[in-house]
Amino acid sequence: MGGSAVVVGGGIGGLAAAIGLRRIGWEVTVVERARTLADVGAGISLHANGIRALDVLGVGEAVRAAARRQYTGGTRTPGGGWLARMDGAVLERELGTPIVGIPRAELHRLLREALPAGCLVVGTEVKSVDCPDPGRVRVPFADGVLEADLVVAADGVDSRLRGRLFPGHPGPVYGGSTVLRAISEQPVPLRTDFELTWGRGAEFGHIAFTDGRAEWHAVLNAPPGTRYADPLAEMRRRFGGWHDPIPALLDATRPDAVLHHDIRELATPLPAFTADRIALLGDAAHAMTPNLGQGACQALEDAATLAAALATEPTVASALARYDAERRPRSQSVARAARQAGRMGQRLSHPLAVALRNTGLRLAPSGVTVRAILRHADWVPPSLG
Known about the structure:
Layout: E1 4-8, H1 12-23, E2 27-32, E3 43-46, H2 48-57, H3 60-66, E4 68-70, E5 72-76, E6 82-87, H4 88-95, E7 99-103, H5 104-113, E8 120-122, E9 130-133, E10 136-141, E11 144-148, E12 150-153, H6 160-165, E13 173-183, E14 194-198, E15 202-208, E16 214-221, H7 231-239, H8 246-251, E17 259-265, E18 274-275, E19 278-280, H9 283-286, H10 295-312, H11 316-344, H12 351-363, H13 367-377
Parallel strand pairs: 1-2, 1-12, 2-8, 5-14, 12-19
Antiparallel strand pairs: 3-7, 4-7, 5-6, 9-10, 10-11, 13-16, 13-17, 14-15, 15-16, 18-19
Helix pairs in contact: 1-5, 1-10, 2-3, 2-10, 4-13, 10-11
């Protein structure tokens, strides 16, 4: 079954969906409202399920070559004590790959390069989609109208299309935390590939890249809309006394490189990921907190699953029904788990609760951390036919 599709949104999920649809013989146009592709974002970790989805889409090897495998690290206290260690070699034995770290800009570039020139249209905003008959969809925009057999709404946490499809849904809500992040300007000596450090209502983490630079992020309990006149100075005030290499990471960062945004999620699950000939994908469908590092991986799973369903089902309607049945329970379950992980990890602020959490992590068997990662990363991708 071939066809044509319009993908609304040129982020990770939208680009991956376009790659998958083209691999099964569909004609695809990706419409991105940003006029310039700044690739805003610092770094990203991809678990085995994300890498497996990329393999199905044909870009897994390119991403592996550009990423750094995260073999060593874990979770620490602000003083440097270990709460839990991560062994990427064990994950690799169990799943075929450890977690990998890559700059978002590099991942975006690799996904764009997997699409032909002219497939991506920038500077165009899609505000609505019309379904004039059961077999076609029309996508009006400033310069005209695109007609297709399918629309993929990958337009992010503030998805306009989701709001039109489900007007009674409350939409995204503030998750209780705000995040600041950046990539270091130059390489930083690091003893581990990946770390999280949990304090009281705060988390600081890093991901090492192949060139020696690193992404760092700081998650803080704060009222929504909190902003700082000098974000880097605030990070030094809050985290400058925490263990190495946190001060070194901050010292290696340009003040203008720090990004800041509030964490929002779809706390109320959607009743469906599809409507008519429209499929919601990625954050538009299941925006979640970042506590499990699964947001992008779930979007990649969406893309692979949608392509597989369209490749093997006899009609678009049956393919979309299958996509919804396979993706909605899993991604919404992961979103719930991410929310719970945040409540038990970074968001805890009461001293007694923090002490109990830390004691529990120290006393837990060494395999507990690995099993927690395996629970969400052990996903078997579908075949594209």
